[in-house]
Amino acid sequence: MTHHNTILSQILKLVPRHEFNRLAKEHDGPRRSDAMNRWTQFVAMATAQLSGRASLRDIESTIASQKHLNYHLGSGSIKRTTLSRSNQKLPSGFYEELFGKLYQRCQTSSPRHKFRFKRKLFSLDASLLDVSLKVFPQANYNRMKAAFKLHVGLDHDGLIPAFAAVTPGKVGDQTQAKLMRFPKGSVLVFDRGYMDYKWHNQLTSNGIYWVTRIRIGAKYRVLERRKVNRSQGVTSDQIIDYTSDRSRKNNLRPVRRVGYRDPLTGKHYVFTTNHFSWSAKTIAEIYKQRWQVELFFKWIKQNLKIKSFLGNTDNAVMTQVMVALCIYLILAFLKFQGRMVQSLQQISRLIHVNLFARRDLMALFKPPPNPNFISKQMRLL
34-71: per-residue pLDDT in tens? Predict the structure, then answer.
């Protein structure tokens, strides 16, 4: 019988250790020999994410029950007090860079988005992570609660996060989006939370296309009307020029306005974009894909530990969230490389149940053999 390490050990081998160790040296420098190193911290936090542990004590007892596996994991002993201190003190920026490295590797095997154009397509959105106001007074959101905010740029090639940041809840969606650097020629889709005409102008100047919904009460004049195919749900296709004082002050370029009525719900939408060549139907379909980033937030909140936190400092929260996103990319890479038909949720649940089992990782996702099948070669004629 072939020997296999645990499922957890095989998953952690998907992390490029040479890159990991190089980043650790850059961010942490020399550390005491008895201090918890980055790899041990990552093993502990990854175990918490993959096994659904809810507290530092849970993590400590889970790993202690499998202490004989530490050699294969390459980690040291894990105490909850030491892990808590590491989460508070070791800079979370390390995991932000690791996230970037894992995303770059996922790009090499991720499937393309469904549209014909070859440009990169990103959806931008942010989601609040509610926390206790008493425990996190520094994250005060309003009089009733505190919250952090997870900002994500979702790459539709594989539906994986390409950009991510954690901020206090009051930080605006636009503020963080302006810090993201997208490749020239890419396409961004976002909702009205990113309604900043000046930023839209800058995106256009940088050769980046965007699609969004028009601001309620926007003032504009129609420069050109195009023919529309109403059988496709398109109600209008126009070139417009904003006429408000702020628009004139920022020298905004003309944009395209597309009206669309959803044939299933009957709801009417009005989009704006700086792309003038695609069909109006394509513009509507691009915006419809923005829903994928909402599904992404729903998935990570249901399947990863980013709603209850293991520390009460900003650094501890950012560390936990960024480790969760790194785990998401590792699972996505596993799915892409193995060409698995299972969804990420099915993959994560199978791993959760078999995390400390000694078996082949890839065989875990193959259908079981048919016990009723009898090969004709085995029959004696």
Answer: 788 899 999 999 999 999 988 999 999 988 887 776 66
| Pick from 70, 64, 90, 138: nearest CA to 323 | 90
Tens-digit pLDDT profile for residues 185-228: 999 999 999 988 889 999 999 999 999 999 988 999 999 999 99
Task: Please give the structure tokens belonging to residue 131.
Answer: 């926390």
β-pair type (209-213, 187-189):
parallel
Mean pLDDT of the chain: 90
Lowest mean pLDDT among 74-78, 100-104, 130-134, 298-302: 74-78
Q: Residue ranges of the alpha helices (H) in the chain? A: 7-12, 17-28, 38-51, 56-64, 70-73, 80-89, 93-107, 173-177, 197-205, 245-249, 280-288, 291-303, 314-338, 344-354
Pair 52, 303: CB distance under 8 Å:
no
CA distance 317 to 185: 34
Q: Supply 185's token pair.
A: 């020629």
From CA 121, how far away is CA 286, in angstroms rounded?
9
Query: How buried is residue 356: exposed, middle or buried, by Cβ count under 10 Å (0-12/13-18/19+)?
Result: middle
Contacts 24+ apart (CB under 8 A), 290-296: 290/123, 290/125, 290/189, 290/190, 290/191, 292/123, 292/154, 292/156, 292/159, 293/123, 293/124, 293/125, 293/152, 293/154, 294/125, 296/152, 296/154, 296/159, 296/161
Q: What is the pLDDT of residue 1?
A: 44
Which pLDDT score, from 0 to 100, does residue 67 have? 72
* DSSP annotation string for 252-316: PPPEEEEEEE-TTT--EEEEEES--SS-HHHHHHHHHTTHHHHHHHHHHHHHSS-SS-S-SSHHH
- Segments in 74-224 forming alpha helices (H): 80-89, 93-107, 173-177, 197-205
pLDDT at 286 over 90: yes
Residue with tokens 């209850």: 308
Find where tokens 């995991």 sit.
Answer: 95
Count CA atoms within 13 Å of residue 129 on its CB side: 25
Tell the residue number behind the tokens 């440009």, with chain if given.
119
The answer to whether residue 136 scores a pLDDT higher than 60 is yes
- Provide the residue type at 69 as one letter: L
- One-letter amino acid for residue 151 of the chain: H
